[in-house]
Amino acid sequence: MTTLAGWEAEAKKQARPAERRSWRQAVVTSVAGGSVQVQTVDGEAGALAGEDVAWARRGKGIGTGDLIFVAPNDKGAGFRLKQVPAVNGAMVAMEPNSGRVLAMVGGYSFSLSSFNRATQAYRQPGSAFKPIVYAAALESGYTPASTVLDAPITLRGAGGQAWSPENYNREYYGALTLRRGLELSRNTMTVRLAQGVGMTKISDLAVRMGVTNKMDKVLAMALGSGETTVFRMAGAYSSFLNGGRKVEPHLIELVEDRNGKIIYRADRRECPRCDAGFSGAESPRIPRTGAQVMDPITAYQITSMLEGVVQRGTATYASRVGKPLGGKTGTTNDYRSAWFMGFSPQMVVGVFIGFDDNRSLGEGETGSRSAVPIFTEFMTEALKDTPAVPFKAPSNAKYATIRGIREAFRPGTEPQAMQAPVGAAGVPQGPQPYNKVWQDGLTGAPNAGAAVAPPPPKKQDDLSDLF
Asked: Is it the case that residue 5 has pLDDT exceeding 80?
């Protein structure tokens, strides 16, 4: 038994979250080697699970007389160690075509804090904002084949103050395609891209997509220094999946009075023939809702690039779900906030992690490390019975392989096959396609150019081919 006199009264002062009904106040009675024995205020005794002892020792440690929370071990004898985390966060799961919120978590415990961090916590999204910059670039004439320089850059404001954005790893890779820059989340490349596009276009697109109501037109905003919520960002990312249309995120789908009369309906589309019996005529066509905020091909281009973030970029941990996924990590200065805005073809999921007082999460607590594992665990369960469906590509896009990856282009912007220059005598110069030079084996020509050269003109007195 512990030597801590009156520990029960002291332990009962520690209020457990109302949602955690299985938790019990307890005291550590002995610590011997890898075994930690505890006793609850109800008089139950047992050992803590070994993995919980391990993570407790990686922190402040655990010793005899410590007052803790425990819960019954549902996988064996003894107890699991529990604690109220100091850090908080939020998550939103949304249906991208309608804006219907499927699930929302506004914090660890509503009984401890009713503040909804999904809708009320305005934080910098960091690099999770970058897809909007790249979408504005694609809308402004850039293509997936365009390259932008990833190199150190220094900018000076009107007052002469210098700003030198850096990449997270302090490394620079030179000219990169738009896809690779987004996959690797290159800051200096994004700033140069924003310079080329202009912050006015980026700000306007962010407002149209619902990220914010107003955005300052300064380059720092391209790296996500403006403030928004997970709820708003989930609505904005929905536009990438639904063909570039804006959705209105909503929590309430339908309200009826006691007689069944509809008072409110989130889906305001009209379908006058939907309740008519089948007559053999064409089925009713329900119009799509939402303003078109970007070209459908642009929306798919960004979706494809964000799929690359999971396949080859900063969110490869999420690939263990085993289904088509995309998304973008976000980390703010001093590791104050960690984000991951991810999606499948059927669902957009936003995750935010941060302290309520906005202090640092700690060195290295990036979106990849803190937010992506939460997204991965959620999607593993949410998609376990869902078939692996690829992201739907627009039918009018043109496709070309750029550096080994199939990219979508707007018609007319796709790369064109280069034609070999033709010499003065009409003979192609330079390398020739193999199937042109050797169509049916050896041609007998002295060289490749002669093999594909047009036949010489016939002499005027040679009329043999006219008969």
From this structure: no
Q: Compute the distance between CA of residue 249 and CA of residue 266 in angstroms, rounded to an integer.
A: 9
pTM: 0.84
- The neighbour count for residue 463, using CB atoms within 10 Å, is 9
Place of tokens 């999204």: 125
Of the candidates 414, 438, 182, the one whose C-alpha atom is nearest the C-alpha of residue 315 is 182
Q: Which domains does the chain have, with CATH numbers?
A: 14-82 (2.40.50.140), 88-252+290-407 (3.40.710.10)
CB-side neighbour CA atoms (13 Å) of 206? 30
Per-residue CA distances from 142 to 145, 181, 193 (Å): 8, 13, 10
Residue 37 to residues 20, 48, 189, 395: CA-CA distances in angstroms?
Answer: 22, 6, 55, 64
Cα distance between residue 122 and residue 336, in whole Å: 13
Q: How far is residue 148's CA from residue 195's CA, in Å, rounded to a whole number?
A: 11
**C-alpha span between 151 and 148 (Å, rounded):** 9
Considering only CA atoms, give the Rg of the chain: 31
pLDDT in tens, 429-443: 666 665 555 555 555
User: Which residues, 6+ apart, have CB-to-CB distance to 204 below 8 Å?
Assistant: none
Residue among 34, 24, 123, 112 at smallest CA distance from 70:
24
